[in-house]
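Journal club side-thread
Mid-discussion, someone asked how the predicted structure for our own chain would compare to the paper's figures. Pasting it here so we can look after the session.
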Amino acid sequence: MTSYSSIIHKIEDKTARIGIVGLGYVGLPLAIRFAEVGYKTVGFDIDPIKTECLASCQTYIEHIPDDTIQELIATGFEATTDFSQACEIDALILCVPTPLNQYREPDLSYVINSLESLLPHIRAGQLISLESTTYPGTTEEELKPRIESKGFEIGKDIFLIYSPEREDPGNADFTTRSIPKVCGGTTKKCAEVGKSLYGNIIDTVVPVSSTKVAEMTKLLENIHRAVNIGLVNEMKIVADAMDIDIYEVIRAAATKPFGFVPYYPGPGLGGHCIPIDPFYFTWKAKEYGLNTRFIELAGEINSQMPQWVVNKTTMGLNDQKKSVNGSNILILGIAYKKNVGDTRESPSLEIIDTLQALGACIRYSDPHVPICPQTRKYNFELSSVSLSEKTISFYDAIILVTDHDCFDYPLIKDHAKLIVDTRGVFDRSANIINA
């Protein structure tokens, strides 16, 4: 039996062993889904805290409860830091971070290091899938040569595909199963193996002609959002100068039943995709001598929004004859979006850092993030404070950055001295500034 027919057979009769490399917001839900449909699944991660949590049936992702982890472990799922077990796996799926470095250039170190850890243990008859967001050409230029250097022929011995993740943490309307899965193979047989694998766990698989097409599809999805958010952020700044409520404008425009999709302004972009992906694309475009001015302009506008919020806060305090230096300021929400506990690339962190540098005394309230996590760039050593009439009235200014549903907005409005609203939650009044 050839490697191709063997792996297809194993996938279809569910005897294939699945290995998920990277057990974060993408990898863990994917592992859960594979285990749900009956695949023996192993999770690989370099973080022993994660593997120990899972072994103890405990979660570390807010929207995935302990009960789900218990059910996962009951299927025989194992989490390990031992990459040598990869030799026992039939399908290895890489779900690791692809951040930017300090120069806002692609950092593929997690992808490359993960693959390098697997290479001594891979064998003929395996599928390797990359799900991490990246620039077009990564699979063919970075993964393929490294696998071939071990003597394997892609499409015959090893089946290499790219299938971008589309997770939306905290979104109850769409699950790993129901979100259509784009899949591109390095060869035709690679694509067929990838379609077979994902077709057994995802309702709809969308095959494309190459890994490059699949890679660029993911970038287009998120650049589309980044550009439109940049547009509405710029319009917000102009509307503010004209004393026009941009949210009223958006609501009115959204009544048009065709040709308009509402996007909303905010304090800046956050999350693992939208602030990052445009830079992956613009960086790669330069290799071809092309400048993506439209995308770069949107990125510039969005990256300026945290400073815009700081400026509006400064002006609001000034109107009350107070300076930022020495003021007590409370940040509402440090997660990058509402109703989740994920702080990756959150604009709140930049706002906190800037205000602290100006001399403000900063605290935050976010029930989804009890302790502010340390990042590559920030380490504030802050923890969430509870909201009450007394605590709210204590602060000279409250900045609403993340509009969690759990916040008591009437209580905040009634007792805050000054509210800087970056999400359009509050109606305009004397003590409320739209930012």
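Post-session note: Residues 211-241 form the longest helix (31 residues).
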